[in-house]
Each structure stands twice: as structure tokens, then as C-alpha cells.
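Whiteboard transcription, Tuesday session. T.W. wrote the C-alpha cells on the left side:
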């Protein structure tokens, strides 16, 4: 078996994992954002850490893939709250890779009964064997 120097191993780690580990300061900022927003609003930080929640670039293909998840998520909200919201538009998405992926979706939906438009946040899991909605809520107002 080939033996690598420490320098070669470090270079291979960067090639395989990307940049070096996330700094302690950035990990604190990231953790505070996850705690404050439930993972729906997080910035991108340089570095690597397992299980990071990161933003998804919403190009057309991503919209097509994620819109059905948002539609299922608002259906879950309607079932839980006896409401009649209809999905309108995907605003943003974050993803966390696990045994599959967790999608933190922010989207607009319209109440069919009164026409009111709300911004929602929903957590959809696309697992290896299971696809399910974990939560859906009206986006909290932040000050």
C-alpha cells in the first residue's frame, strides 16, 4: 500500500473534502443562525463540516425538483390546520445531506378561501427509503 507524506495527505483532503475545516468563529455564527431560524436562513461559510445546511442555487432544474416537495409540505400544513392554502412560488431552499437529504424550503402560498398570501417554511426529507414532511409553518416575523 502506498505511503503518503503529511503534506500529500493534506492536499488529498482538500481535493476530496474541499477547503479546510470551518473555523471555530464561523461555526459559532453558523450555529447561531441555525438556532435562530431552524435552518431556513443560513449563510455560506468557508470551510468544511459534516452535516452543514447550505443554500441551494434555484436554477430552473432545482425549481422543478423542489416544487413538488413544497406542494406536499403545504398539503401537510393544510391537513394539520384545516386550511386551504395553495402553493404559489418557491423563494429559497437550503439542503442538509444526511441519509438522503433534508430540504429547508421557504415559499409563498395563497389561502384559497380569502386570498391572503403567506410565506411558509417547510422541512421535507428525501431519505433513502422514506420521503416525508417533518414540519410546515408560517414564517416567523423577525425584528
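and on the right, the sequence the group agreed on:
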Amino acid at each position: 500500500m502506498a505511503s503518503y507524506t503529511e503534506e500529500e495527505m493534506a492536499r488529498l483532503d482538500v481535493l476530496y473534502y474541499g477547503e479546510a475545516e470551518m473555523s471555530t468563529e464561523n461555526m459559532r455564527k453558523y450555529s447561531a443562525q441555525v438556532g435562530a431560524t431552524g435552518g431556513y436562513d443560513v449563510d455560506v461559510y468557508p470551510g468544511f463540516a459534516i452535516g452543514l445546511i447550505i443554500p441551494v442555487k434555484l436554477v430552473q432544474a432545482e425549481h422543478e425538483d423542489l416544487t413538488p416537495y413544497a406542494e406536499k409540505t403545504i398539503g401537510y400544513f393544510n391537513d394539520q390546520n384545516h386550511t386551504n392554502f395553495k402553493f404559489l412560488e418557491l423563494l429559497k431552499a437550503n439542503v442538509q445531506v444526511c441519509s438522503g437529504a433534508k430540504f429547508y424550503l421557504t415559499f409563498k402560498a395563497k389561502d384559497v378561501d380569502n386570498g391572503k398570501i403567506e410565506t411558509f417554511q417547510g422541512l421535507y426529507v428525501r431519505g433513502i427509503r422514506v420521503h416525508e414532511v417533518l414540519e410546515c409553518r408560517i414564517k416567523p416575523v423577525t425584528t
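Someone added at the bottom: Helices lie at 6-17, 24-37, 60-81.
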